[in-house]
């Protein structure tokens, strides 16, 4: 709303705030209906007043847990003297609630802040918090590998991960978009960045989330995916259906990878997935080291190293490994059948 009152164009606001044309139009309508004509009026609005103006569909905080001021916590994560999330959580634990109330766990505390950041497209101050979010998606354009003997073509899907604050990207090729490759690609991204972001924002493909009920657009995170993320002390916040701007940065990251990785490698013929991934990795390195970036004499990697890397969660000492659970019936000879040949 402040940008609208500064006579910025829709296109400028969409680029600055990473929001959709529809969102800008909605903000303009609210300004008109409520007589907001100066930026000082917008800045004077409280979080509660903004919630009334913009119904964002968030649930009322559970009375079972001690509530906290999410907007205030997010504000403390911006500017030069931003506080780490663990410090904010420790301060939250010192607050008292009513008898019988519990405090949120650290993971849930981070998830609530993440949901607030992703849902609210109104202020650019909370859009990019160092180390807070990793956005992930599959690129729409595929690659291919060819058997050197038969010439058979195999399609390769390209996974893209992006850190909104620094713009750092990661990409790798997978033979399909099923859960094992989805999780493995996440793990490789974590290892490439040297840690896990506090919140992961995936797309709404069945790989990441399930439909809660038939006809209901809302989705919940898959159990296998949730367990994987919990192992790495992070959590997923699926994007809202029909809201691609919830993942504005990864859409930009996918576009960069499509143009500067998939596009540049389109004329090369790869004999194996390893060969393709070696080439993808080289192009990704070039993207992250390229200058200038965002109009400054710096690169994605320099921004990442200076401001974001230290904010990521350390990875567990034991590397995550996929597990397949199988229910078996004990036979009369006390043996259990695992598989048949």
From TrEMBL:
It comes from the Bacteria. Residues 126-308 form the Integrase catalytic domain. SUPFAM superfamilies: Ribonuclease H-like (SSF53098). One of its GO terms (biological process) is DNA integration. Signal peptide: none annotated. One of its GO terms (molecular function) is nucleic acid binding. Pfam families: rve. This is Transposase.
């Amino acid at each position: 709303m402040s940008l609208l009152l500064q006579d910025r164009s829709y296109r400028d606001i969409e680029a600055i705030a990473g929001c959709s044309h529809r969102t800008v139009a909605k903000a303009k309508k609210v300004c008109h209906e409520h007589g907001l004509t100066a930026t000082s009026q917008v800045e004077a609005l409280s979080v509660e007043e903004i919630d009334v103006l913009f119904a964002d569909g968030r649930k009322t905080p559970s009375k079972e847990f001690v509530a906290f001021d999410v907007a205030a916590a997010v504000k403390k994560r911006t500017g030069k003297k931003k506080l780490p999330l663990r410090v904010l959580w420790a301060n939250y634990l010192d607050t008292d609630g009513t008898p019988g109330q519990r405090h949120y766990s650290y993971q849930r505390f981070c998830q609530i802040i993440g949901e607030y950041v992703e849902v609210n497209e109104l202020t650019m101050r909370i859009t990019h918090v160092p180390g807070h979010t990793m956005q992930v998606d599959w690129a729409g354009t595929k690659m291919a590998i060819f058997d050197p003997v038969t010439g058979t073509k195999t399609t390769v899907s390209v996974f893209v991960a992006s850190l909104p604050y620094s713009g750092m990207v990661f990409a790798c090729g997978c033979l399909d978009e099923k859960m094992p490759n989805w999780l493995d690609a996440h793990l490789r991204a974590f290892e490439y960045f040297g840690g896990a972001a506090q919140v992961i924002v995936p797309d709404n493909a069945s790989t990441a989330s399930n439909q809660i009920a038939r006809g209901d657009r809302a989705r919940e995170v898959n159990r296998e995916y949730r367990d994987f993320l919990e192992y790495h002390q992070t959590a997923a916040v699926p994007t809202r259906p029909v809201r691609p701007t919830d993942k504005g940065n990864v859409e930009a990251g996918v576009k960069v990878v499509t143009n500067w990785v998939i596009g540049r490698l389109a004329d090369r013929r790869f004999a194996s997935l390893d060969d393709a991934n070696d080439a993808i990795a080289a192009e990704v390195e070039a993207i992250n080291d390229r200058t200038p970036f965002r109009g400054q004499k710096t690169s994605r990697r320099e921004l990442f190293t200076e401001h974001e890397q230290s904010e990521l969660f350390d990875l567990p000492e034991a590397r995550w490994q996929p597990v397949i659970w199988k229910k078996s019936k004990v036979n009369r000879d006390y043996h259990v059948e695992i598989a048949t040949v």
